[in-house]
Amino acid sequence: MNGKKAAGIKALDEIREGMTIGLGTGSTVYFFLEALAEKVAAGFTITGVATSQQTIDLAKKWKIPMRTLNEVSTIDVTIDGADEFDPQLNGIKGGGGALLFEKLVAKSSKKRIWIVDERKKVEQLGRFPLPVEVVPFGWKHVESFLVNKGYNPKLRLTADERPYVTDAHHYILDLHLQTISDPEALANELDHLTGVVEHGLFLGMTEKVLVGAPNGTVETFEKK
Ligand SMILES: O=C[C@H](O)[C@H](O)[C@H](O)COP(=O)(O)O
């Protein structure tokens, strides 16, 4: 057992028959989907709404019934991963490039739960590079603006050194900040920057974080 798997399996406790479930993205969500698929195969009825092509592919492979976000009016609970979370349960997401669809699904959800391993717990956000999704048109000008602000952006590249392209056909500039002293102010600034589609600061966007340890135990952090 590793921490990610422990948290992924524990998230099953949050699921009830008949629910519409937001399905996050990443290596921790993988374990949740695997466990959910076993329940579905045994006759448990749910509907999933995926946050990425990667998750659609897994759900199809494991025969989890799916709808698109437009096909549902609301989502009962979303189970997603995170790259960092702090004591206020604010977080950074998008290490896997899925931040835009993840934020759309999260905002349509009645309840949001993150599943992570212990390495994701931090006192202050920012050690993990903050993903900023930008339109390809003129992206170098957005990059220059971010350089001038001292935000240290790096264009995300694929293994063969091409720009990484998101499911929505955008690029990602990862901001290497080390610490984010005022996440609200930074989120507000990025929200208003032309050319930026979305950023990976998820503030006040989860009610519960399940943190898995290598020994298989899971600690729960809930919003106060
Ligand atoms: O874009 C990807 C997502 O935000 C992931 O949920 C996040 O990067 C955590 O991924 P993992 O569970 O693989 O560490």
Automatic annotation (TrEMBL):
Pathways involved: Carbohydrate degradation; pentose phosphate pathway; D-ribose 5-phosphate from D-ribulose 5-phosphate (non-oxidative stage): step 1/1
Source domain of life: Bacteria
CDD domains tied to this protein: RPI_A
Enzyme class name: isomerase
GO MF annotation terms: ribose-5-phosphate isomerase activity
Listed EC numbers: 5.3.1.6
Binding site for substrate: T25, G26, S27, T28, D80, G81, A82, D83, K93, G94, G95, G96, K120
Active site per database record: E102 (proton acceptor)
One Pfam family named in its UniProt record: Rib_5-P_isom_A
Assembly description: Homodimer.
Entry function: Catalyzes the reversible conversion of ribose-5-phosphate to ribulose 5-phosphate.
Similarity comment: Belongs to the ribose 5-phosphate isomerase family.
Record's protein name: Ribose-5-phosphate isomerase A
Record organism: Sporolactobacillus kofuensis
